[in-house]
Design goal:
The chain is mostly helical. It has helices at about 1-15, 25-35, 40-45, 55-70, 75-90, 100-115, 125-165, 185-210, 225-235, 245-250, 250-280, 305-325, 340-365, 370-375, 385-390, 395-410, 420-430, 440-450, 450-455, 465-505; strands at about 170-175, 175-180, 210, 240. Bound molecules: arginine (ARG). InterPro entries: Arg_succ_lyase_C, Argininosuccinate_lyase, Fumarase/histidase_N, Fumarate_lyase_fam, Fumarate_lyase_N, L-Aspartase-like.
Length: about 500
């Protein structure tokens, strides 16, 4: 613990200098003592922090405006600090002076420009609440970008569903032919999962979008800070209440990364399905989404989908790394946390790309209708429909299942369904009556036809084209609602940016 306390002392000393310009140099001396020595680069997160450079500037601005409004620092100093921040922003992350992290480096850059009074920027805060605010601020944007990509992907999948409502294909369980379905029904099954992935991300967003600023190191501050005001200036929907929790928690990162890992798992299934379909000639990928072999000239491989499948490891591994980092950390801040964010960033970057590529591959693919329809009867995949017919005629479903199972026994996976005569003989054997006592030939032949078989299954959510049309309509409604939710959040963020700019302009 003593290490952590040393850091906190450094921060506390630091804050104390704000009211006393003469002690500005001492801050530098004290920092020199803790410059890191041989562990300098090990301690530093400065290059990783490029990700939160812009976030830190926003957080600094909101904090400084609030400090001035609360008369914790004077307006003139606020103006000088805010002008310096604009200059630091123009120079960019690469021009920052050396520092343990972006927060320290930006502060040093401000002090370089303003003089010791620049150190007043860090009044009533610690890097602990500062970095937490930066991570939340940046993560918000990343979540929204990911949601936008997922919403776009859903739109593409819905388009495929609309076009392929009548395209019959084999459906599988255990990777074995099971029942005929359609490309539309299959693709909507993933669109539906992506709806939930979207909802999970938007839900996580609510808990990301809380303001930790004003918690200081963890124990609050004697200054009369206005936490609602910094929330408003940063577009946070609320204040992360307990200051110890607010500065220490990263559960919002875990929640977001978990949603990303779940999304990646959804995509991996989609990718695997397409890889298997491609291997059977059930889908023809656009060349843009395929790759060839450096030696086997005839090959057209579904590499993009394999990478989508493989990138699942980026997200699931990231979640694992993150939770392992967070596990067992005592309250309040510990430096372990400096290594937490990267897992979330890597996961979200990797999977945002995956979403777009997976959807692009599906949206541009060709679905060979004849091949798919022929494959849809492989392995007597219409068997359940025959049993259903018998059950509709009053035969207990279990008995109907036995009749059809008996007729199907010994059929190879590529073989066609047994014909009317064969089924009739088995029915007579098991039921004691000819098949015609239950089902006429026409109805049976319809059940054996994959297109008719699909059309019969028109229960809500089923594959029949009419049932799919309803699913498409619902999916479109949810898509519109989710796009609206996305726009609302983007608007809240950009309104806060406008508010910040307006306030900053009052001082500069
Ligand atoms: N770079 C640090 C991080 O990312 C900032 C907080 C440092 N706080 C401290 N008490 N050492 O977590």
């Amino acid at each position: 613990m003593s290490d952590g306390e040393d850091h906190e002392t450094a921060d506390a000393d630091h804050a104390a200098t704000a009211g006393d310009a003469d002690r500005g140099d001492e801050t530098v001396v004290r920092r020199d003592r803790f410059a890191g020595g041989p562990a300098r680069s090990f301690l530093s997160s400065l290059s990783d922090d490029e990700r939160i450079f812009a976030a830190d500037l926003a957080v600094d601005r909101a904090h400084v405006v609030m400090l001035a409004e609360q008369e914790i620092i004077d307006r003139e100093t606020a103006g000088e600090v805010l002008a310096a921040l604009a200059d630091v922003e123009d120079a960019g992350h690469g021009a920052l002076p050396d520092g343990e992290d972006v927060h320290e480096a930006i502060e040093s850059a401000v002090i370089e420009r303003v003089g010791p009074d620049g150190g007043k920027m860090h009044t009533a805060r610690s890097r602990n609440d500062e970095v937490a605010a930066c991570i939340r601020y940046r993560l918000r944007a990343d979540i929204l970008d990911l949601v936008e990509t997922v919403v776009g992907a859903r739109e593409q999948l819905i388009e495929v569903a609309r076009a392929e409502r009548e395209t019959v294909m084999p459906g599988y369980t255990h990777l074995q032919p099971a029942q005929p379905t359609t490309v539309a029904h299959w693709v909507l099954s993933y669109e539906q999962a992506l709806q939930r992935d979207t909802a999970r991300l938007l839900d996580a967003y609510e808990r990301v979008n809380q303001n930790p600023l004003g918690s200081a190191a963890f124990a609050g501050t004697p200054f009369d800070v206005d936490r609602e005001r910094t929330a408003e200036l940063l577009g946070f929907a609320g204040v992360a209440e307990n200051s110890m929790d607010a500065s220490a928690t990263r559960d919002f990162l875990a929640e977001t990364t978990s949603a990303v890992a779940t999304l990646a798992t959804t995509l991996s299934g989609l990718a695997e399905d397409v890889v298997v379909m491609a291997s059977k000639g059930h889908v023809d990928l656009d060349d843009d989404y395929a790759s060839t072999s450096s030696i086997m000239p005839q090959k057209k491989n579904p590499d993009t989908l394999e990478l989508v499948r493989g990138r699942t490891g980026d997200a699931v591994g990231g979640l694992n790394g993150l939770l392992t980092n967070l596990k067992g950390q005592p309250r309040a801040y510990n430096r372990d946390l400096q290594r937490a964010g990267r897992h979330a960033w890597d996961a979200i970057d990797s999977i945002t790309e995956s979403v777009a590529v997976a959807a692009g591959a599906v949206a541009t693919a060709d679905w060979p209708a004849e091949t798919l329809e022929a494959a849809a009867t492989d392995g007597f995949a219409t068997a359940t429909g025959v049993a259903d017919l018998l059950a509709m005629a009053g035969v207990p479903f279990r008995t109907a299942h036995e009749v059809v199972a008996e007729a199907a026994a010994g059929l190879g996976p590529e073989e066609d369904a047994p014909d009317y005569e064969t089924l009739s003989a088995v029915a007579e054997d098991v039921l004691g009556k000819p098949l015609s006592a239950y089902v006429d030939r026409e109805a049976l032949e319809a059940a054996l036809d994959p297109t008719e078989s699909v059309a019969m299954r028109d229960s809500r959510g089923g594959p029949a084209p009419d049932a799919v049309a309803e699913q498409v309509a619902t999916a479109e409604d949810v898509l519109v609602a989710d796009s609206g939710a996305l726009d609302d959040r983007r608007q809240a963020v950009s309104q806060a940016a406008d508010r910040r700019r307006t306030e900053v302009d009052r001082y500069v």
